Amino acid sequence: MLFLTCLHCGLRSVEEFRYAEIPTVPETMTDPQAIDLDRGFFRTNREGEVTERWFHEFGCRRWITVRRDTRSDSILK
Amino acid sequence: MLLIPSTTLPASAPVVEGLAGWRVVADPASLDELSGTLPVPPPSAGRGVVLRFAPDDALVLGENEVVVTDPHAIVEPDTGWVSIQMTEEHALDLIATHALWPAPPERPVLVQGMLAGLSVKVYLDGNQSMIITAAPFGLELEERLGT
Amino acid sequence: MNEFVESKVRLRWPEELRSSYDVVIVGGGGHGLATAYYLATRHGITNVAVLERGYIGSGNSGRNTTVIRANYGVPEAVRFYQHSLELYQRLEDETGRWIMHKEKGLLWIAHTEMGLRAERARAALNQAYGSDTVFIGPEEIKAICPQIDLSGGGRYPVLGASYHPRGATARHDRVVWSLAEGAMRGGVEVHQRTRVIGLQVDADRILGVETDRGFIGAGTVLLALGGQVSTIAAMAGLRLPIRTHPLQAFVTNHYQQGLDAIVASTELLFYASQTARGEILIGAEIDRQPSYSYRSSYGFLSSCAGRALVLLPFLADLKVLRQWTGVCDMSPDYSPVMGPTDVQGLLVTTGWGTWGFKAIPAGGEAMAALIATGVVPSLIAPFGLDRFVNDRTLSDRGSAGTQ
Fold it and tell me: Does an H or E element contain B31, and which?
């Protein structure tokens, strides 16, 4: 099971957290309408390292930023 | 599950009680200061204590009035929590059975997380302890921990 | 694959990879093989290669929970899945292979007034668009599935259900093998252990695929893979409306046949059925974080088992035998994505989330027709990538059986 380190509460299982992705739009995209569309529906869905936000719902109710490898679901330092 | 009737009653059967205190949202420094000025909590009463939910968020118990240095602090009476009082031994036993995290060694300490699938905060002071949860989950918690 | 199966299903594996094919299908799962099968049998297109990085059916085609149903919540989806359900009913006769297809009836249970409204609406919509779904009360539910605790442990009372009598299951491996055999018989080449490492595109037109066994030229390339589809599509500069989430399921030991219906509850977030071997198969919601990991977790097992027990208390006496994980390509509107892309000659069939297995024949048939004729069949036209641009999304989260 995935465990995340909350800065205030310590190491906790993923079930205590709520996930939030940080949407990324390709830098080459410049048309504002295309950017809005991309942000709404399209995803990089990266296979590898991602930066994301998790909310410690069952503890301090604060956000943490996490680096994770989506290939192995492991947390990176 | 097979239930074997016990011949001895548990030392403290969990009973959920209301918890009235002050919810204080203020800058971390002034909350640190508040923790310092309050008298050391009498171990058994579970009163006169600052329960630090987050760096800028605390629940203060057993005080008639709370004054903090942060001029923008929010101090409001908070009756949204309930607690179950028990011996520390009992609380540590419940943590070992129902949680995926360890109880920290320091005392007094507030530890937060999922216990028996519910969001709880456990206050351990070396002698008496209490498990705190949001009022709507009180009876559910009692039921889950009681069996 | 064991000897018994080898002796029944004749799979002819090609040795050599040719330098080009008319059609290259990336992904040797249900959708890829069904497309190849229908290309060969319906359209006479046999200069086709299916590329699979592992062995056929090793991805989500071998990891799903094998439910076939058409009780969806938007008209376009009801029509599509109903057609697929009918193709499944005929698939054994068509391929001459036993896929262990069995009609069981599916109960979709509601525990709240809101759930009741949703299931009533589902029944009405299904009937209007040609799928057989009826709304039933607790007594009828008990008659169909006597194991259900109507009180729901006191907290999730069973108030009603939409009942889908044509709900069925089939053995997923056999579906894959039958389609592969049928495709191979027609002359299609299925190459296992062949991984795609690049797509070659020239001026918005696909030229072929780069594999770990060399370059293969192709007039048409279909991405029919689960999991890595975003990674492969990115090789052609495409972005897809897909997030890949793991989904776990588990089975108990083998027991005497007794749970006849498929039982599902979106409010309790689980579904259960009994396999032909006698295992009770239980699945549930996707993991919240996007991930390509096949790792299973105790957290899922304990929480899902706990929820299943609420409705089916007899499960408490059963032993869990094994647990596994697949990865689901979730689209923002919980509907699949099928059709052409901005790159000419490059097609996708993806976004199969938790609804891919039931769509194998219809998805394959439609993609084969699209490849053969160049015209998007009307059955799948609403599911194109352009629906996001045109504000024509098909939001159907309530029918996904997940959250």
Answer: helix B28-37
